[in-house]
Amino acid sequence: MPAVRRASRPPFRDGGAEKKDNVATVSQPATSSATPSLPSPLLDIRNLAKSFGRNAVLRDISLQVAEGEFLTILGESGSGKTTLLRIVAGFETASSGEILMGGERLDHLPPYRRLVNTVFQHYALFPHLTVAENVGYGLKITGLPKPEVTTRVEQALDMVKMTAYAASKPSKISGGQQQRVALARALVNRPRLLLLDEPLSALDANLRRQMQVELKSLQREVGISFVFVTHDQEEAMVMSDRIALLRLGELEQVASPREIYRRPATAYTAQFIGHTNLLRGEVKDGVARCHSLSWRTGLRDGPGLFSLRPENIRLASGAAGSGSVRLRGRVLRQAFQGATELLQVECAEGLTLSIRTAGRENLPGEVDLEFSAADAVPVRESPERA
Amino acid sequence: MFSRAYRTAITLPPLIWVTVFLVVPYALLLCYSFWSVSPSQVILHSWTLDNYRQLFEVNVYLQTLFRSMWIATRVTIFSLLLGYPLAYYLSFYAGRRKDLLYQLVIIPLWVSYLVRAYAWKTILGSDGVLNTLLQYVHLTSHPLEFLLYSPFAVVLTLTHIYTPFAFLPIYASLEHIPRNLVEASHDLGASPFQTFWRVIFPLSIPGVLAGATFAFVLSLGDFLAPLLLGGPSGIMISNIVVSLFGAAYNWPLGAAISFCMLALVLGLLFLSETLEKKWSFR
C-alpha cells in the first residue's frame, strides 16, 4: 500500500522549466492582505485554528506555499510556529480549518500517508541504524528494490557530502553532520514539501551561517518547497522567498524579505524584523505631525504610527531637498558596529531616534539630520493580546 | 576533590559490609564444597572433588537442574509476553492513566511472597476456586488434578510473581525512547506497526534483556513456589539445596550445587550484560 503511494511521487529533478516559472511567481510582491496570485498553490492552509484546552495556540491561519518556494515561518517562542508545522506534518490535529496539498485534503491523512517529510529540531536520527540505514529508512519502508535504495542513498549522501560516514552510527558524528544526515534522510524520499523545524538552532554561529547558505542552494537545486521554522529573523531574511511572521498564534504579515523589511504592515513586524524607530503622531489634512516634525502622508486624519528605519536617517548637509524632513538633535550614544555606527540621538523631549550611519569618528554633540518622508512607513498598531 | 580521609570514610562501610556478609560466607561455602561428610555425619575437612562429581553423576541432581532451567525459561517467556505489551501500552498509550496503572503493577510487589503463593493454592486446589467454578458450570465432572502440585502451578505462580520484574526494565527502556524518533518514523512513511518493529522494539531490547535476566535468574533459584505448589513433580534445584543443608545434612554437596548455580547465574549475567551493551546506542 505505501509502495503505491510513494511511487506516485513526481521525481524532483525533471521540473526545471516549471520550477523557474514558479520562482518567478513567487518573487512577485505578495502582501498579507492580497490573496496570492498563484493559480493553485502546493500547500493551502485555510482558516486553521488550534487550541490546547482553553489555550488558543493558533487562530485563523490562512497561508499558501507555492511549488518550489522557500517559505519561512518566523516567530518568537510561543508564537505557535512549531505547532503549525506539526499540524502540517500530521503530528497534531487542527481544531478547525483545513489543509490542502495539490488541491486534495491533507489533514485527514495520518503522517505516514503524507507526501511531506520533516527535518526535526534535534534531528531525530535512529540511534540503532547507521547513517546509510537512516537515510534509506523511508525508501526501504516503501518496498523499493534494494539496489535502487542503495543507489539513491548514495546520491543523497553525496548531495550532503556525508558519503564518508555512511557506515557510522549517528552518535559518532558531530551535530552539523547529523544535521546533514537528517536532511538527506528527508530529501531522499523526494517529498513534495519539506518541513524544517528550527534545524539550525543547535549549531554554533559559524556553522549555522554556512548551513544557511548550503540549505538555500540545496533547495534551489532540488526544487522542492521548503517550509522552514525559525525564531531568528536574520536567518529568515537570508534564506526565504517569503516570510510568514507569526505572533501569538496569528499571522502578522506574509511577504518577501525585502517587502516585509521595507513595508512592514504592523509595528510588531517593523520592530521584530530589523531595528526601527516608531513615530507616533497625528495626521491632519494629509500631514503627519510628531513633536516638531511634520511630513506629508497618504494616511487619513487621526492618530498615525510610522516606522522609520535607522539607516534611512542621514546626517544632513546642504539645503534640504523637497520631501525630506530636517531635524536637529543631541548625540546620546555612539556604538561602533564595524561597517556602520548606531547613534542614539535625542531630538526632543521623549523623542530619541536610532540612526545608522557609515562609520564616522567623534560626532559633535549636536547633529543635523534628515530623512525622506517616503521612508516613514505607516504601520498598524499591534494590539496586546492576553 | 575530597580529602583522602573522607574518601576512606565513605568507602569503608560498604567495603566492610560486602566483606563480612558476602566475601567471607561465600569463601566458607566454597571451602565446604570441597569437603565431605563422614557416614557418622561429621564434616571432614579434607579436600576432594567428590561433591562436584556426584552432581554430574547422580541423575536426580542434573534432572532437577534441567527441570529448573526449563521452568525458569517458561516463566521468562510468559513474563515477557505479559510484561512487554503492558509496558508498551503504559508507555505509549496510557496517557493520564499512566501513573495509576504503573502503581497497580507495582503494588503486588509489596504483598508478601507467601501470601501470593498461598493465594494460588486456594485458586488451583482440588476444591479451590477454579475447580469449583469449572464443575459448577459443568465443564468438568471431577476436580482437575494437574492444576496444583505440578510444574504447571509453579510456572503459573512464578510468572505471576516475576512479571513485574520483567515489566519494570522494559518500561524504563520504552520511556527512554525519544518520541521524536517515533514521529520521524511515521514521517518517513512507516505505519505504526512498521515503526514498532523497526524502531521501538530494537531500542527496547536492552530492557527486554534485563527483564528476561531478572525473571530467569530469580525463578531459577526460587524454592518457595515449588515447595508450596510444586508437588513431587515440580521440585526445583533450590529445594534440593535446602534439604541438603537441612534434613539430609550434607552441607558439602549442597555447597557444590550452590556454586554450580552461582556460576550459571554469573555466566548469564555476563552474557546479558554483553548483549545489552551491544544493543544500547547512547
- Secondary-structure element pattern of chain B, one letter each: HEEHHHHHHHHHHH
Query: Spans of chain A of 5+ residues with little confidence (pLDDT < 50)?
Result: 1-36
Report the count of strand segments of chain A.
Answer: 20
Mean pLDDT of chain A, nearest integer?
A: 85
Query: How far apart, in Å, are the first and last alpha carbons of chain A?
Result: 47 Å
**Low-confidence spans of chain B: pLDDT under 50, at least 5 residues?**
none
Q: What is the string of helix and strand elements of chain A?
A: HHEEEHEEEHHHEHEHEEHHEEEEEEEEEE
Shape of chain A: elongated
How is the largest sheet of chain B built, in terms of strand order? Answer: 1-2
How big a fraction of the residues of chain A is strand? 25-35%
Task: Name the structural class of chain B.
Answer: mainly alpha
Helix content of chain B: over 70%
Main β-sheet of chain A: number of strands, strand sense, barrel status?
6 strands, mixed
Strand content of chain B: under 5%
Largest interface, C-beta within 8 A: A-B, 30 and 20 residues
Compute the CA-based radius of gyration of chain A: 24 Å
- Provide the spatial order of strands within the biggest beta sheet of chain A: 6-7-8-3-9-10
Q: What is the overall pLDDT average of chain B? A: 90
> How many H/I helices of chain B?
12
What's the total count of β strands of chain B? 2
Separation of the first and last Cα atoms of chain B: 28 Å
